[in-house]
Amino acid sequence: SHERICQYIAKESGALVVSVGYRLAPEHKYPAAYEDCLNASQHFLQHLQHYGVDPARVTVCGDSAGGNLAAAVSQTLAGRSDLPRLRAQILIYPGLQALDFNLPSYQQNRGVPLLFRERAVYYSLQYVQGDTSNLEEVLEGSHIPPDMRLKYRKWVSPD
Fold first, then answer.
1. Mean pLDDT per 10-residue section of the chain, whose length is 159 residues
2. Cα–Cα distance between 65 and 124 in angstroms, integer?
3. Phi and psi for 59 in degrees, rounded to 5?
4. H-helix or E-strand spanning residue 122
5. Which of 19, 63, 77, 143 could form a disulfide with 92 if both were Cys (CB 3.0 to 4.6 A apart)?
6. Residues forming a β-bridge with 63
7. Which one-letter DSSP state was computed for residue 130?
8. Is the pTM of this model over 0.85?
9. Which sequence spans correspond to the domains of the chain?
10. CA distance 123 to 93
C-alpha cells in the first residue's frame, strides 16, 4: 500500500528505500509484525555494502502502526553493538502508547478523521491479542492496574 510513496521518496531524495511487507493483524498477532521488521532491518544492516549504502546514513521510518514498529525496532537496534547505528527515525503519526486513550491529545483531536480513538483501540487490540472483547475497558482506562499507571505517570499523564 505504500509502494508509490516509497518510490517518490527514493526518487526525490536519491536514497535507497526499503519497504518491509510485514505480517498483519488479526491473522498474525504480536510480535509477528515486529519480528518481521526487526529481521528485515538486521539483514539490511548486515549487508549494507552489498546494497552500496553508507552505514552512517541509515534511517528507519514508519507511519501509524508502522511508526510504532519503526520506534520499537530503533530501540532494539540501539542496543546492538554488532550493527551500524541508525542515524535517525522518522515517525509519522505513530501509535506509541496504549496505557491511556483519554489523554488531552485524544480529547482535543476527537473529531479529526485520521484515526478515531475507538478505531485506534480496536486496531491495537487486534494486533496484541487478536480480539476486541475488552474494547470498552480499554477506552475507559480500566485495563491498566493502578500500580502500573503510577509507574508510568511521569511519561503518560494528562498533567
1. 88 93 94 98 98 95 94 98 96 89 87 83 91 95 92 87
2. 9
3. -125, 140
4. helix 117-129
5. 63
6. 92
7. S
8. yes
9. 1-96, 97-159
10. 15
